[in-house]
Amino acid sequence: MEKTNIVPETVLTASKLYKKRSQLADIWHNFKKNKGAVLGLIILGIIAVMAIVSGFVLDYDTQIVRQVVRERLQGPSLKHFFGTDQYGRDIFLRILYGARYSLTIGIVAVMVSLAIGGVFGIIAGYFGGVIENAIMRTCDIFSSIPSILLAICISTAFGASIFILMISVGVVSVPAFARVARASVMTVRDQEYIEAAYASGASRLRIMFSHILPNSLAPIMVQVTMRVGSAIITASSLSFLGLGIPAPAPEWGSMLAEGRSFIRDYSYMTMFPGLAIVITVLSINLIGDGLRDALDPKLKR
Amino acid sequence: MYKYIISRLLLLIPIMLAVSFIVFFIVDLAPGDVVDILAGTEMSEADIARIREELGLNDPLLTRYFRYMAGLVRGDLGISFVTNRDVFEVYMLRLPATLQLATSGTVVALLIAIPLGINAAVHQNTWRDSGSMVVGLLGLSIPTFWLGLLMIIIFSLKLGWFPSIGNDTPLSIILPAITVGSGQAALTMRTTRSSMLEVIRQDYLRTARAKGVSEKVVIRKHAFKNALIPILTVIGTQFGVALGGAVMTETVFAWPGVGRLIIDSINNRDTQMVTGAIIMTTMLSSVVILLIDIAYAFVDPRIKARYSK
Amino acid sequence: MNNKNLILNIENLVVHYETENGTVKAVNGIDLKLNKKRAIGLVGETGAGKTTTALAMLRLVPDPPGVIKSGVIELDGENILEKSIKELEKIRGKDISMIFQDPMTALNPVFTVGEQIAESIILHEKVSTAEANTRAKEMLEMVGIPGHRAKDYPHQFSGGMKQRVVIAIALACHTKLLIADEPTTALDVTIQAQVLELMNKLKEEYQTSLIMITHDLGIVAEVCDEVAVMYAGRIIEQGTLRDVFNKTKHPYTEGLFNSLPNVNNRKAKLQPIPGLMPDPTDLPVGCSFSPRCPYANDNCRENKPIPRWISDTHMVECSAYDDPTFHIARGEK
Predict the structure, then answer these.
(1) Which of A140, A148, A156 lies nearest to residue B15, judging by beta carbons?
(2) How many CB atoms lie within 10 A of CB A206?
(3) Interface predicted TM-score (ipTM) of this complex, two decimals
(4) A11–C280: do the CB atoms touch at under 8 Å?
(5) Does B287 contact chain A (CB < 8 Å)?
(6) C273: which residues sit within 8 A by CB, 6+ positions away?
(7) What is the pLDDT of residues A181-190, one digit of tens each?
(8) Would you call C85 and A1 a contact, using CB atoms and an 8 Å cutoff?
(9) How remote is the C-alpha of A187 from its chain's centroid?
(10) Is B137 an interface residue toward A (CB < 8 Å)?
(11) What domains, with CATH codes, occur in chain B?
């Protein structure tokens, strides 16, 4: 017997199994059904709050960066939840503060990708022809460079700083956004209500922004959430390699690089920052998955 | 059929040119150049200027680029100013180690991902499915380098089963391969699952069942061959990712491949090596994607037909 | 009816789909008997339960969410519902075959048509691969496709030809009972005629019994000996062609005939049946057709009708006939 959970089309159309709800409420309802997604939202919320609060509550110079030789290399304890590193700095506090870097970089980098990629994608999809071809070929070329190598390339060329990090991580995702934007535009462009808008005299620009853009939003939103997670990982990878945010900033990747020298006897130094990355990215990915399922219920059925 | 292969190969050339130009351009933007490193403090300004002229470093970007590409075609990527060795030669020396890593990683990924993906699709919405999805999502959330460190902590330091550094013993490949493979497995599994889900609702499976084909054969033969097509793409792109991602794994495990070569060269300001290595790696990645595209045509007769007529 | 002569005996079949939003009562207790070498048309609108009934006969109802709640389905004397999966796999494609509505998606795109026909033969008969391939080619010729095209892929055929291939697969093992679920609905009218002619010819040739599922009464008239009309999961009228076409009894059947445009009287208004099919998750209390029935009375609306045999062959399920003087407008000719 087939193990498929599919009701035959003819049976479905005959019955009224679907209740009516507003579109946004519908999306939220579907999203809520996904326990993982809700969990992700909660966790991310906590992390975001920690990131914001630690900026106000913790003092960078005394608590994050100052070296206290007396307290170096202590394992996890009540005084130092995650222990201390080789300079005596409290790892727990550094991780809390480090959330600021990871979240900021993740969000800004993706905003950069979205801005550049999205604009190019919309232009490509809307105008078609030579312009579309040129833009998409360029995207293909950039995509064929393995992303981490591209990011390394840019970071090396321009030096290690938080600003360059955001740019290089962002550039890596531009082709993906361009493609999604273009695909969205192409689907929407051919719908009849766009023809209707033309017929009633709206200008091309107006159509692009008030009609095409809002309807292309859904797949773009999904891409955004997916990319923030990978942006955080790429950023911490670059920092791990020494190409990211310079010491003594408590970026999770560079904390892992430092901890590596002490991996034999002080493995907790590599455990906690790594866990921080995993939990943050996981919660973002859960949200992204939930969003994607909520926006396109056909996929899940 | 051959026309298709040839046309794809030809397409590769402008892509390689563009890619190598981008890499060349970006690396070139880095402040300072080799002369600064070589010169030290004893040389006079005039000498430095003269050496620059001799090395052709004052020529415009495009000229230098074309000179470089002309060399590339001959297999000459120049000599590293830092190590004094031929860039191409060094790269080729280190490449096998990375290929070995990328291949074993891909094999590990396939062994994990495909059965899990098929299983998840066939048992959609049961705990088997959600469990696999969570595991897949977890895989996408773990940075490769941290996974490597974790593997070292558990399997090398605490348990002592495998070595953590270098390429000395046959066992050395195990931990790095699993590290690379797990990262790839996550995405491959999700793609396998969604591809199988697409196929599972197809009518031709119903036709097969109505013929009396057993469920196992329906899934394995009828469904999977159709699901293979998107899976192939993922494998191809994953290999490219593995090549790039080898950078991280090789750094963590001190694996003597091209990834570590790139990082070491960056730290040594060896621009010649960096440029050459990144360009070579990217080209390799493109070739793999091309090979996957060709494999496509053999698996999907519709595509084969389109390109043979 | 002689039991030995029955190819199919369905008694009180009930099939529901249990979804999270409600239970869809697709098939609500049908009885169907078909003699060997006969063809019956199963008529009804979309959602009446015809496809589900057919799938149940092969036990291909998607499970979950479909459940065969009760009933007996006997194929040539053997109860299908009691068979194990392995036994079913032997029966499907050999003793009973089914062809589906959309030929465009019915064939696997990555295998040649020859392979797909041969697969059926290899599964059910002990022959070598070479022999199976030869027979596959023969089957193609039987359905009017040159044998050398066995090595071609489905996308290289037109819709009508694909459906012929589907028929070839279904009949490759000389099946006893063929179920055709709207096989011509997706095809052009001219191709439709060709495919029907082919089915008629093969039916004669192989002495196959046929269940033709359709909403088109014209097709029934061409191909079938008997008719069963389904509505909301029940068979509400059943009989020979003559019984149902000329001595129509059920108001719904009358409605179906009335909906057909009258070629001779172009000025006559179209007479559709008012209203819609009831929601299978929420069926009416009494007769399912009563909300739309021009003859319905309170008895109809409150109580479910019971089957009534007007002759040996003709059955109708309508409470209005409790009144012996009742007759519908379409009367006897």
Answers:
(1) A140
(2) 11
(3) 0.82
(4) yes
(5) no
(6) C252, C255, C256, C258, C259, C292
(7) 888 777 776 6
(8) yes
(9) 25
(10) yes
(11) 94-307 (1.10.3720.10)
